[in-house]
Design goal:
Blueprint (H helix, E strand, L loop, with lengths): L10 E7 L5 H15 L3 H21 L4 E7 L3 E8 L19 H8 L2 E9 L2 E11 L5 H4 L1
Antiparallel strand pairs: 1-2, 2-3, 3-5, 4-5
Helix pairs in contact: 1-2, 2-3
Length: 144
């Protein structure tokens, strides 16, 4: 059984968390739950990993709290991570012996599309980094 979202009326879930070492896990579990509740369990682990990478970047390099939004539509799910730093992340080539530096490459490889924008919302000036997963065509009717 999936969520019943319609393109004109998508379901939007939000979460705010402090930029602490525990936040990636909380945000990852939040996103995994949304995907599972929407009947998209097969995408939940990849979405959780992408979320964890983006939230970890906020903890390590960002500024302010993490603000997340997940929007479920009939044909896709978008997860957006906001923070107050105006510095856009830039992918870098990690050396083979490094244990970090691959997060944006993972998000690019796992998601169907991803991107980032400067964010001048009512919550402050910063950035939004997002990714999307397309709903498999066989499931779009269950989300319509």
């Amino acid at each position: 059984m999936g969520a019943h979202a319609h393109p004109e009326h998508p379901h939007r879930y939000t979460l705010s968390a402090p930029a602490l070492p525990t936040s990636p896990r909380l945000c990852r579990d939040f996103v995994r739950g949304i995907f599972a509740a929407s009947g998209l369990s097969q995408l939940a682990d990849a979405a959780a990993l992408c979320t964890s990478e983006l939230v970890t970047n906020v903890h390590r390099h960002g500024k302010g709290d993490v603000r997340m939004a997940a929007t479920v539509q009939h044909d896709r799910v978008r997860v957006t991570v906001h923070d107050d730093s105006p510095e856009l992340p830039s992918p870098r080539r990690a050396a083979t012996d490094e244990t970090n530096g691959r997060g944006l490459f993972l998000v690019t490889a796992l998601s169907d599309i991803c991107g980032m924008t400067l964010d001048e919302s009512t919550e402050g000036t910063g950035k939004a980094v997002w990714f999307e997963f397309n709903v498999p065509p066989t499931q779009t009717k269950s989300l319509a």
